Amino acid sequence: MVAHVEDTRAAASKLTARRLLNSSLFYLTVAVVSLIIVFPVYWMMISTFQPSKYILHFPPPLLPQELYFDQFGELFSEHPIAKWLRNSFLIAVMTMLLCMALSVLGAFALSNLRWPGRNLFGLFLLVTQMLPEVLILIPLYILYRRLNILNSIPSLALIDAAFILPICIWILKGVFDNVPPEVLDASVVDGCTELGALWRIVLPLSAPGLAAVAVVAFFFAWNEYLYAGIMLSSGDFMPASVGLSTLKAIAQTPVEQYMAAGLVFSVLPVVFYLAMQRYIVSGLTAGAVKG
Amino acid sequence: MNERVDADALAGRSGGRKSPPRLFRRRYLLPFALVLPIVLYEGLLIVYPIVQGIYGSFTRIELASSAATIWVGWDNYERMFSDPAFWKVIRVTLLFTSLVIVVALTVGLLTALLFNRPFRFRPVARGMLMMPWAIPEVPVVMIFIWILSPQFGVVNILARMLPGVTQNPQWLQVPELAMAWMVLISSWKAFPFYSLVILAALQAIPQELYEAARVDGGNRLQLFWHVTIPGIGSTLELLVVLAAIFSFKQFTIIFLMTGGGPSGTTETIVIRIFNTAFRFYDYSYATALGVAGFVVSLVVALVFILMQVRRTQETA
């Protein structure tokens, strides 16, 4: 009897030992993988927050030697980065407003209404979102040149919105799909028009989806580089994505300023993208053609 | 609850939405009125330029003069198909695209499997995992320009550990290394997205399937092979196509880091189109290249759509 108890106890402790080994191996793998993935981001931080005299050594120290915060002030006084950010902000806000207005209409038609041509419309959106932007750069550039609307912030926002609108509509359609049809039926029975139902019922129920659309549209324009570089060649309208790409590390711009610039530009998109990732991912993938 | 919705949306079955409200089913003009501004807008800024581009590829485009356009027929295409540089661009594009698909999806799958198991700090770890995806491309380029700096770049520490490496390599000047870095950086930026999608698919696999397989005596590898892989198979297929589309579109990272160099070894078709138009000012030839790229991406997009249709029919 006693021996039996001893046996099971030994077996149990063997099992916990194995479990412990297993889970510590698992944690180790998770740690190593996470470290490799995050290292470039870590390196940006390290290079931002210490004076570059430490890091301009080979091999550079892997841990920060001294905290330093003057680089932000120097960055803003030595480069027109405030102006770049302001331009980016203006382009992004215009793109966002345009996309929000149009995607509400498109998503409502795609999700809550039935009409012939609905599938075709969805297909049309799906294809436009999949084409490489550079393919229509040249015709658009020629068009803009002929119309003489190059170097204008609103005309760039017009292009950015055209590129991101299909994804915004798909995101919002996914959200509108979750509004129970019974609620809409009831509202129509109560004498509400379809647009009234959209305004009073669908939209209030879809606030997070609208926020996601706002985030996606805003930061698409904020991050966009290709069109911004071609369409806004004049320095006055240069947005931050293009401005930052003109900075030359070490040679012209001290490393801590260079990396600080990247950091300043990334903070907002990172925060908002991470908050909205679920919606963004569904918009990019679930653009399924449905009957 | 969140993950439920997520998985549903991604698995292509958007829940219990069977039919729209009865009263919304009448035929009327409202949907067309709603959609018209969008169609006009996308038509003007996307479709019209495509048509214009196709037309332009058959003409000689002179931006400076206002002379009438000159019809040149198939000249640009004849030039393209007989141009060895064009075929090199195609090879580079294929190589880059397929390598990014393989690397980004493999890393995405492995991290998804790793993070599928609940553990302490998982939310934190997942947030960190999504970082590369959330950082805009231009700062990504800045980070890697600095990391790969031949003088002070931190990656040289690793390189120096290899036997025989006594000098910091010129990372972006050696063709093979430049291509490898373009693939790695693009994959680093892209994989969190695939990881998230695969994770949602993994979590949608019913636990009963695993239990049943375990009762039948399946070991871990068999569980993976006979339950996990079939469970996420269609999602993986879809992601291959999506990854093809995304990596085919990749412009900013390559353009800002190598510009297509050294000597064209990282020049994918999108970079080539840009360089032809805005470095050599050869607009008509660039438009012809653009049409070629358009045909390729249209084919891939159609494959994606067909797969989506199949999936929705299967799950419906």
Automatic annotation (TrEMBL), chain A:
Keywords: Cell membrane, Membrane, Sugar transport, Transmembrane, Transmembrane helix, Transport. It is a multi-pass membrane protein. Pfam families: BPD_transp_1. It comes from the Bacteria. One of its GO terms (biological process) is transmembrane transport. InterPro entries: BP-dep_ABC_trans_perm, MetI-like, MetI-like_sf. It is found in: Cell membrane. One of its GO terms (cellular component) is plasma membrane. The keyword Cell membrane applies. The chain crosses the membrane at residues 25-45, 89-109, 121-144, 156-176, 196-222, 229-251, 257-275. Residues 85-276 form the ABC transmembrane type-1 domain. The keyword Disulfide bond does not apply. Belongs to the binding-protein-dependent transport system permease family. MalFG subfamily. This is Carbohydrate ABC transporter permease. It comes from Caldilineaceae bacterium SB0664_bin_27.
Automatic annotation (TrEMBL), chain B:
Pfam families: BPD_transp_1. The lineage of its organism: Bacteria, Bacillati, Chloroflexota, Caldilineae, Caldilineales. The chain crosses the membrane at residues 28-51, 89-115, 136-159, 179-202, 223-248, 283-307. It is a multi-pass membrane protein. CDD domains: TM_PBP2 (cd06261). This is Sugar ABC transporter permease. One of its GO terms (biological process) is transmembrane transport. It comes from the Bacteria. GO terms for cellular component: plasma membrane. InterPro entries: MetI-like, MetI-like_sf, UgpAE/MalFG_permease. Residues 90-304 form the ABC transmembrane type-1 domain. Keywords: Cell membrane, Membrane, Transmembrane, Transmembrane helix, Transport. It comes from Caldilineaceae bacterium SB0664_bin_27. Coiled coil: none annotated. Belongs to the binding-protein-dependent transport system permease family. The keyword 4Fe-4S does not apply.
